[in-house]
Sequence to fold (464 residues):
Amino acid sequence: MIIASSSSVYGSGYLEYLLPVLKKHFKNVKTLVFIPYARPSGISYDDYTALVTKAFLNININIKVKGIHEFTNPAEAILNAEGLFTGGGNTFELVNQLYKNAVLVPLKEAINKGVPYLGTSAGSNICGVNMMNTNDMPIVYPPSFVTLNLIPFNINAHYIEPVLNSKHMGETRETRIKEFHVFHTIPVLGLKEGSWLEVINNTIVLKGNHSAKLFQKNKEVTVIENETEICL
Amino acid sequence: MIIASSSSVYGSGYLEYLLPVLKKHFKNVKTLVFIPYARPSGISYDDYTALVTKAFLNININIKVKGIHEFTNPAEAILNAEGLFTGGGNTFELVNQLYKNAVLVPLKEAINKGVPYLGTSAGSNICGVNMMNTNDMPIVYPPSFVTLNLIPFNINAHYIEPVLNSKHMGETRETRIKEFHVFHTIPVLGLKEGSWLEVINNTIVLKGNHSAKLFQKNKEVTVIENETEICL
Fold:
């Protein structure tokens, strides 16, 4: 699995910063099944799938992209996929559709048997134990917040440090995660834009140019340096 | 009802900017029932209630504050209250506890019969049709997102304009609200810190020094000037 904080970084095209990683990750993949359920800015499944197709061409990755909505049996499509990619957008709507289309279990099964998976933003949040550390607005009510539980912690994507001297009184990201730990013991990884996790079997390594922050209940926050294995 | 974006503004104490308004709003109130369920930073109900008691003394409001958790029958406490205040914190946990303690209906009933209500931040979000425009992290799973529906639109508290020249790739507040309108027709009012709504019977007036932004499905965003009645 490649679990990326964001699909793009400032000043660079969609997925562009991940090009060398994706070339390697999807080297044996000819057709990729794309999950467009998160619908960033509310775009349609077709438009989102077309955007990904174009992006892959732009970064010279020669893979045919097929949206999961193009299959009559989405669960079967996932189980038969050579490669899988869940794009970013709204995590509530993504999880809602994963439940409605009954593809959460097949997705977990496919990834567990070794199908290469890419998640960005919302598509990364769902790799955690649950989606309770998303930054997204709850624009729909999913049947549950429980997600794939493929890594032993939750992801906070687009992690950002508090803005110095801000006059805004809304909670910082760190405060929000600490509030989560009043109710739960699940660790949370704050993954900055431009960072990703490379997960091979049970080994999880932080990649990209940034450190990450690991929040654990009743513990000091830990800074994880890049190129480090994350052991809990 | 006083529906405030935030409990405080930058550089001023808790509730301080609202002092003249609260003096008038609660002028006949000797004992106020406080709802501390939103637990900002995870503080206890007792600590939160003590904080509000102290804040009222600091701003020379002589009202006895009693936390709803101090009553054996919270629904009855609300129905018998002279005044009501729901504080800010996490909207998911607030709504979760409103359902668990079965106080959502009594709360609506009390406000409808004229008991003066103050809501700040999460306590304001719950006055809308549902809580789907909160900025909070979904740290608990409430039984529903449906709230008091006492005004014909939703509140986005702590509303903030996009940061110019930001390198952060996460969605702006405006993008998130527009995503909401892909799925719903409920209007959303972006209420800036330092703004509040004064609701008397069916008249809703924007107060404070700032304008607000009204988002409606398939319409241009409307700027509402302060001291203006909001008519939908």
